[in-house]
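Support reply, case 0932

Customer input (verbatim):
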Amino acid sequence: MATNMNDMVLISTDDHICEPPNLFDNHLSGEALAKAPKLKTDKNGKNYWSYQGKTKPGIGLNAVVGRPLEEYGMEPNALEDMRAGCYDVHARVNDMNVDGIAVQMNFGNSIGFDNDTFHQAEDKDLALTHLRAWNDWHVDEWCGAYPGRFIPLAILPTWDMKAMLAEIKRMADKGVTAVSMSENPTKQGLPSIHNEYWTPFFKAIADHDMSIALHIGSGNPVPHASMETPIEAWITTMPLSISVGAADWLQLKALHDYPNLRVALSESSIGWIPYFLERADFSNWRHKAWTNSRFQDIKPSELFRRHFLCCFIDDAFGLKHLDEVGEDIVAFETDYPHSDAVWPNAAEHLWEQVKHLSDAQIAKVTHENAMRFFRFDPFQHIPREELTVGALRAKAAAANVDTTPVSTGGARPVEEGVDRPVTSGDLGVMFHKHATTIAETESAA
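Our regenerated output:
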């Protein structure tokens, strides 16, 4: 058990990959490879992905670890603006070591947290081919390069139930125990999670003992009051945005049908959970007599604690009130390489927030809950003593991993000297200018 920071084993349940340009090369050939998503460069030297007539730019906050804080922003970026660990698995493991992170579970960036790149594609046969290839790259090349260091996370063709069930089985046969999907599929033109359309899906997930990961922003948008609202207000409410999806999923019939069904709220934080559950129970008590509620013999809070995992980056309040949150439904994450990641000091940051807990509680929050929930045991591959914060940092020191901040510049959303906060509108203008540049680049090609 952990007695100090260096003894902790840290599993991060939410991190991201900025996919490299060659990700499809070993998994496709011929026309399928020629028509796969392509990483391109615009006339200003910034990268974007192009697929079936649609484009997706790189955005600064998605990959800012290792940059000075004053250079954080949502400007267009390129791979050369990032640490190599954002897109290279070998560099990623070095960055994990120096951060004291034993294991990561990685969402994609270019495909969207909810696989929206493939959902938006018009040619769904091609999209299915490329989605399957992305899964193979992620499982075989990225996670497979370092067994025990990554929890594989598959994406699914949710627009086609037959194909989705086949991909669940195919991934399960590869040993995958987690899948990512939108918290609100109606945003993709699909039926709601309460529609019978999803019945075979939930059965397949339960039958294969898989977990479902719902990332914030994957369906229900993070709201902002106006285009003049300072951007910090938007960033502040990001974790809370998943409460809409959490309330929706808590009403899911499948949770009553399948006792082993598991749903992770990725990047959700935990401090709001006690009130959320208190409110759910109160609402059920006051209204179940007329709502035909499924919660007649069990409280919503009881079902939530049976089926959900809540993942946090920074939540001193929630950890201070862990007894009320629930020590069995909490898991740590770093969000590397996004802007909330405190790399390379994740261990120090977490230790200050958990050191008041018992050794048993620290073990649950740092790795045991994640191992149980995602059915993943890194110690089958690597001895526990080699995965502690201290052991990993010793390995990073031996490899001379450099953590010196590197300045890469980048466009600012407002002119130098502007005496007001950056707003949502400022970012909208920046995105529009970049979209115009991409369109001009695509037209020239």
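We compared this against your earlier run and they match. Two observations from our side: The radius of gyration is 22 Å. The mean pLDDT is 93. Please reopen the case if you see a mismatch on your end.
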